Amino acid sequence: MSQQIRKAEGKLGILTPGMGAVATTFMAGVIAINKGLAKPIGSVSQMGNIRLGKRTENRNPLIKDFVPLANLQDIVFGGWDLYEDNVYQAAMHAKVLDANMLFQIKAELEAIRPMKAVFDRTFVKNLDGTYIKTGTDKMDLAKQVMNDIENFKEANDLDRVVMVWCGSTEIYFEASEVHNTIEAFEQGLKDNDPNISPSMIYAYAAIKLGVPFANGAPNLTCDIPALVELSKQTSTPIAGKDFKTGQTLMKTILAPGLYARALGVSGWFSTNILGNRDGLVLDDPDNFKTKEVSKLGVLEDIFKPEDNPELYGDIYHKVRINYYPPHGDNKESWDNIDIFGWMGYQMQIKVNFLCRDSILAAPIVLDLALFIDLAKRADMSGIQEWLSFYLKSPQTAEGLRPEHDIFKQLIKMQNTLRHLMGEDLITHLGLDYYQELVDEIL
Q1: Where, residue-wise, is CATH 3.30.360.10 in the chain?
Q2: Integer Cα distance of 358 and 241 in angstroms
Q3: Could you tell me the CATH superfamily of domain 247-354?
Q4: Residue 1 above 70 pLDDT?
Q5: Is the pLDDT of residue 254 over 60?
Q6: Reported CATH class of domain 2-243+358-420
Q7: DSSP of 22-72
Q8: I want to staple 89 with a disulfide (CB 3.0 to 4.6 A). Which of 85, 108, 160, 403 is the partner?
């Protein structure tokens, strides 16, 4: 199938709605890497290997050397934000990266300036944007975003563009009639329907233009029938939702291990403290609800209590996030896990993860951008579930339960890449190695 993938020629534009801590850390990191000042640690696309063929063949190339991904030197950055700060100013304000490092790439960062954002305080009550678009209706705002995309592409002489949502978590709401069909959705844009959020306007604008879109927040965004339908009509790959970074990353590593060993879990209490803009937004209960739903679904889908009632039928799962300004972007999470083993004897696991939220998210933004660009060049459209490896609440086809086990997600992603490149899929069965020995003896 590799001959069907168009080459990654020319420049790739990566647009991010939201240019706060995550986006500026991502952009600064790629620029620093290109200047030889840093390494792309945490980026599976850049530093991860993929096994090809049998183990005895010892073929384990880097993923970036196996599939035709865009070169980091060919990336151009842009985006939208509620505040007018350039990326250098925004990165200094976020206080994620060392000021000395930022100073070394100051000129490149200062050159990246945000476009005015689509903003509705109804969906993010704890922020008050000062650099925002105005329009006659939501369709007008969507057309302004489309104009921004096309102007950005022309001004930078880009071959391709992708969009990755790096904005704030919007308030919790469920899909309604306006989200069911593209006709209803477009009429809703014209009618200023209150159930169409800013992130949906960005997603619509991108997908309408055939620009691949990945959603890094737990918002509905493109996880609605109307935009899934549009993505198929315009042959556009989409992926979401919610970057899998700190506490949930640990859950998708630990829970599959407990499940694999048939160890019971009676309770899992999780709490976080976080002080960046994301923490401020999540300090509002309506916004936290969106994040809570995203986080709570992970254990249920891994443990499948309806299939394993004796082990997980009575699990009590609680998640808390507390806004704590002194910690800034340095999130701290605590997990208390009550487990039981042979003959029902009780045990506990305690996890204290002192992580850096944007440091974990930045390589995810890079990988999603590069892989969704690959998907577009391979003529893949609609939901890209193979990218669920990076996401807390993976978007799936209607009626299909998401896979949260990070190890199964990795196999799914690697097998997708093997398939694209015409290599054999790997099942890890391994019996063929030993059957050959048996045949030799006989």
Answers
A1: 247-354
A2: 16
A3: Dihydrodipicolinate Reductase; domain 2 (3.30.360.10)
A4: no
A5: yes
A6: alpha beta
A7: HHHHHHHHHHHHHTTS---TT-HHHH-B--BS-GGG-B--BHHHHS-PPPG
A8: 85
